[in-house]
Amino acid sequence: MARKSEEERRRDLIAATIREIGASGTLNVTTSQIAKSAGVSPGLAFHYFTDKDTLFLAAMRSILTEYRADVTQALAGTRTPDERLHAIAQASFGMTSFRREAISAWVNFYALALRSEEARRLLSLYHRRLHSNLVHALRPKIRERAPDVARRIGGLIDGLYLRYALDTRTLRPPEEAVGAVDGSEGAQHVLRAIAAECTEVHENDEISMADADPAPMAPLAGPQE
Amino acid sequence: MARKSEEERRRDLIAATIREIGASGTLNVTTSQIAKSAGVSPGLAFHYFTDKDTLFLAAMRSILTEYRADVTQALAGTRTPDERLHAIAQASFGMTSFRREAISAWVNFYALALRSEEARRLLSLYHRRLHSNLVHALRPKIRERAPDVARRIGGLIDGLYLRYALDTRTLRPPEEAVGAVDGSEGAQHVLRAIAAECTEVHENDEISMADADPAPMAPLAGPQE
DNA sequence: CGTCATTAATTGACTCGTCAATCAATAACT
DNA sequence: AGTTATTGATTGACGAGTCAATTAATGACG
Fold it and tell me: What does the UniProt keyword field contain (chains A, B) (predicted)?
């Protein structure tokens, strides 16, 4: 055997890929660039990954794993539903996700999903996980309305992420103030939206309770959409 | 002079560009492809557009103009704030925006914004217009809270658009069911989110009125975020 | 009305650089 | 000595952008 373990090389190459995508803002990154950034020769990339798309998908999986770890860690110390919601919001707009590299990779993977079935699968995996986390945190507060609300909150997170990520201020300075604009504003918005949704659910429940049906145990399982 | 007017040629080339981006799902489209699709020779593209990026930006402007016209038209017949909100939601998820071509172009322009200042400018122009439309429609309902809420609703629209646009079902069938998944579900979500935000604002106003301050004319201009 | 000169759009072959992927040679390890 | 990672030169294809030649229009003049 030679220099490094397969595991390590793969990691290096994936990290280099993300780094280069981050630096260029595109998937138009040459194998040479990536290899150079990983400190290996161009040929080696193809020894570990069959072709460039495979490498990109591996990088995407890596970004997703990283994000997942972030969320998991943030959720670890939580006890109340509100703490959980706070954790999810924070993680989605946290330092890890707002590095230039991560932003660049993330946005480009959206584009990749247009032409790669596998990328689409990974993206929907992320969607389902986020949805599941949100439902879990929302269920104690709004019961059967959780899935419907979670869908909107998930969409809101993605949308706001993109807005802040592509904000001129976030992106403009090539190197100077990398993380100048943090995402905490985005997280605030998400939490406010959640508050609004929950208030409305309770409002409606009270109305329907006071207004229509004297039986206090009406709906528990129903279709969400 | 020869065959066609400059205006017409530009239009043809831009349309072809969008068509090809839609077909391939990438900005990796050759000038030859575009020219062929526009029914002209490869060289001509460079006669009307200095280089490929210029052509892409022109295409992006075209998509934005189209969307704008769509919204304007939808807003034209409206009288009440609710009608206006409905119109905005509908237009954002309408047929025009959900064509495969438009989706592909839109997503790729997000990626383009990572490396092109001009693309970023256009994107933020879209953001400002959407925000302005939303504020205008929300103001009668929630006064000074409108800008804050509009920010979230704008983000929600973008996020949900992406989710439905990249949904496997929307994209999978290469040609068979082009507009199979329409965006009306997305529009529904947006309207529900707006309802929730408005309910909460009123709820809070009532609480603060009943609870804290007997003076009924407290806040009229305040910081939004 | 034709013919020819002028002007401008349009062509497509070509250049020059780039890059994904290959592979025979080599270096590092046991 | 044998095995396996690693190299880097190479190939073959492709594509952006150029440009000299071609074609179609306009109109000037006989």
Answer: DNA-binding, Repressor, Transcription, Transcription regulation
**Domain residue spans of chain B:** 1-49, 59-211
**Per-residue model confidence as pLDDT tens digits over B190-211:** 999 999 999 988 877 766 555 5
**Which of the nucleotides lies closest to B42 (Cα–C1')?**
C12
Task: Please answer yes or no on whether B196 and A200 come within 8 Å at the CB atom.
Answer: yes
Examine the pLDDT at A141 and tell me if it is beyond 70.
yes
pLDDT tens for residues A58-97? 999 999 999 999 999 999 999 999 999 999 999 999 989 9
pTM score, two decimals?
0.89
Task: Please identify, in words, the CATH class of the domain defined by A1-49.
Answer: mainly alpha
State how far the Cα of B158 lies from the Cα of B163, in Å rounded to an integer.
Answer: 9
B78 dihedral zone (left: phi>0; alpha: psi -120 to 50; beta): beta
Same fold, B1-49 and B59-211: no
Using alpha carbons, list the distances in angstroms from residue A2 to A5, A6, A9.
8, 10, 11
Is domain B59-211 annotated with CATH 3.40.50.150?
no
Q: How far is the CA of B3 from the C1' of C1 (A)?
A: 24
Q: CB–CB of A188/A104 below 8 Å?
A: no
Per-residue model confidence as pLDDT tens digits over B108-120: 999 999 999 999 9
